[in-house]
Design goal:
Order of helices and strands of chain B: EHEHEHEHEHHHHHH
Radius of gyration of chain A: 38 Å
Largest sheet of chain B: 5 strands, parallel
Shape of chain A: rod-shaped
Mean pLDDT of chain B: 86
Low-confidence stretches of chain A: none
Structural class of chain B: alpha/beta
Distance between the termini of chain B: 30 Å
Structural class of chain A: alpha+beta
Strand order of the largest sheet of chain B: 2-1-3-4-5
Mean pLDDT of chain A: 87
Helix content of chain B: 40-55%
Number of helices of chain B: 10
Strand content of chain B: 5-15%
Oligomer: heterodimer
Distance between the termini of chain A: 54 Å
Largest sheet of chain A: 5 strands, mixed
Number of helices of chain A: 13
Chain lengths: 397, 220
């Protein structure tokens, strides 16, 4: 049975785990090296019992820190950082008692230096404020210099002490830089994921609304007493709408996306095909007193644009049916070299565009649906004087 | 026989419609400006041959008896030889209406239009004008755009452009900064030239001009 990597709750959590691995890894290495060098160090130590006790304290503290931070899945506790710094300072300053002078430079008998470097690295990760890290580095550096520089008997030992002390700010700086970047990256990725999830929810809701808007109009009309002349086309549209909703319910997102992708690479629609699609669209509105002027459809267009235009036309005719009470509805389409234009004019009751907010259909299923094609949509209406909706654009090549 | 200069107030119109309600209704609604004589069939009209200024003709004349009556394009051809014909119909298909114009009709108006519009159309026909519907305006626009109609002025084309899209004359006139009557006059000229074009060209010519297949546009 393969081991499954547990899923990270967030990217920020993953960043913390990366930093924890770095700190504990370095700590584990220090513990391992200490245990390997301890027998030799104790032989040289003037106070071997104290030296051993300090080593044991360091190991136990390391285990405690490892357990606590592993449970927490992060090394972000200032309290633990203070613990590490305190222990680092303790073992550093204890060198004056447990490490002979000549063993304080480049020897694991003076094991306080390498383990206190780990404390500087840990401080850079645990403390969130820069001044806290600087203070920790300063304390460790000062303690180290106090123990070594003051005890240096040769120029070489002084140089060693000075060069070694630079490792404290270097470790802190590197870990601080990497840690800061990883944390910021984690935060931004999590924020982006949240935005994506929000957008996906909104897009899903929009899909639902687009699917249901026109069907709601049809259902609303069918629920009222209607003339048989209107009932026929309405029932046809209701049947088509039911099929669309069934397909939507039965299809998963991946299949829907594959279908959409397939549709987007369909070949160009010829002028005659475009006329046929437009007539088919109007077929569902045979209850309306429609006049189709399609004689100026003389050029083709992309299948995607044709689909968008026909869907927009459907929405407009739904609106006419619901609101206009017109005695004539003219659908005029031209598609020429320069571009295309579709106009729907009804001589119905009109409305005041200044006082009436655009409905969902006009706003989303007409304007927004044609934004990708760079189309313009113009609505002209006056109360009592009918409504004209004009859509126009260039033909994408 | 026909006084084309008759003002509307003295106009006598023959109404040919097999629907009794329509015939009797028009008699009342057109009164008093227009006097009417009512006929249920073209055959009756041709038998009596009244002295009328305009014939208001329905395209679909089925009647109540189970006999074949003259209707459609054939009715237009028969009646237009004697009187100006204004088609009064629910038909909206451009090719059918173009066929009627080609057959000799002077105009087309929909039954959905208001009574005032009908009276105006009757008066215009009586004065020798041509009245066309939005569907026919669309066809005329296409013919014009393809260069087959004798050249129209930019204003006439502009008015035709609006009418093909269903815009009322008030809106067209407002957009062009002209009077409504002027817009109507422009359209009258366009309509007249379009009707002449239809009468002087065959169905095949029109289909060729619009890039259509044989039989797509005008029915025989």
């Amino acid at each position: 049975m393969a081991l499954r990597t547990p899923q990270l709750p967030t990217t920020a959590a993953g960043a913390e785990i990366c930093l924890l691995i770095l700190v504990l890894g370095q700590r584990g290495l220090a513990v391992g090296q200490l245990l390997a060098a301890l027998p030799a160090a104790l032989e040289l130590s003037p106070r071997p019992v104290l030296d051993a006790a300090l080593a044991l304290l360091f190991v136990l503290e390391s285990v405690l820190v490892a357990i606590l931070t592993t449970r927490r899945r992060a090394y972000d506790s200032p309290a633990l950082g203070c613990l590490d710094i305190s222990l680092g300072l303790l073992v550093l300053l204890s060198e004056v008692l447990v490490v002979p002078l000549d063993s304080r430079f480049t020897s694991w008998a003076g094991w306080a230096y390498p383990v206190s470097l780990g404390a500087a690295a840990a401080a850079a990760v645990a403390f969130r404020r820069r001044w806290q890290v600087l203070l920790a580095v300063l304390l460790l550096s000062t303690s180290y210099l106090a123990v070594t520089l003051l005890a240096a008997q040769t120029q070489e030992q002084s140089t060693t002490a000075i060069t070694d002390v630079l490792s404290y700010p270097a470790f802190a700086f590197i870990l601080r830089g990497v840690g800061g970047y990883l944390r910021r990256l984690g935060k931004e990725v999590d924020a982006a994921n949240l935005d994506i999830a929000r957008l996906a929810t909104a897009a899903e809701r929009k899909r639902h609304r687009l699917l249901l808007h026109d069907q709601a109009s049809v259902l609303g009309m069918l629920s009222q007493p209607i003339d048989e002349v209107v009932a026929g086309p309405l029932r046809q549209q209701a049947a088509l709408g039911a099929a669309k909703i069934r397909w939507f319910l039965a299809t998963d997102d991946e299949h829907a996306q594959r279908s959409a992708d397939t549709r987007s690479v369909e070949p160009k629609v010829t002028p005659l095909q475009l006329q046929a699609y437009l007539r088919d669209t109007c077929e569902g509105f045979s209850d309306l007193p429609l006049v189709l002027n399609l004689h100026l459809v003389l050029e083709g267009m992309s299948a995607q644009l044709c689909k968008s235009i026909c869907e927009a036309l459907t929405t407009l005719l739904h609106n006419v049916r619901r609101h206009a009470q017109a005695s004539e509805v003219v659908v005029h389409v031209e598609c020429l070299d320069a571009g295309w234009e579709l106009t729907v004019h009804d001589n119905g009751r009109g409305f005041d565009p200044e006082r009436t907010e655009e409905g969902y259909g006009l706003r989303h299923q007409v304007r927004d649906a044609l934004v990708w094609a760079g189309a313009q949509v113009e609505v002209l209406s006056n109360e009592g004087s009918g409504t004209t909706v004009r859509m126009s654009g260039s033909r994408p090549r | 026989m026909v006084d084309h200069q008759s003002p509307i107030s003295q106009l006598l119109v023959a109404v040919v419609d097999d629907d009794t309600v329509v015939r009797e209704g028009l008699k009342v609604l057109l009164h008093p400006e227009i006097s009417t004589m009512l006929f249920s069939s073209v055959e009756d009209l041709l038998r009596i041959r009244p002295q009328v200024g305009v014939v208001l003709l329905d395209l679909e004349l089925v009647g109540t008896v189970n006999t074949r009556q003259v209707q459609g394009r054939c009715a237009v051809e028969a009646v237009s030889q004697h009187w100006p014909v204004l088609i009064y119909t629910n038909e909206r298909r451009g090719h059918v209406l173009a066929s009627c114009l080609a057959a000799g009709a002077s105009g087309v108006i929909h039954k959905a239009e208001g009574i005032d519009d009908l009276k105006r159309a009757v008066g215009a026909i009586a004065q020798g004008q041509v009245i066309i519907t939005t569907a026919l305006a669309g066809l005329a626009e296409a013919i014009t755009r393809l260069g087959s109609l004798p050249s129209l002025s930019p204003r006439q084309i502009d008015v035709l452009h609006g009418r093909a899209r269903g815009e009322p004359y008030k809106v067209i006139a407002s957009r062009m900064g002209i009077a409504r009557k002027t817009a109507e006059e422009h359209m009258a000229i366009v309509s007249s030239r379009f009707a002449t074009y239809l009468r002087n060209h065959s169905a095949a010519d029109l289909e060729r001009a619009l890039g259509l297949g044989q039989g797509d546009l005008l029915e025989p």
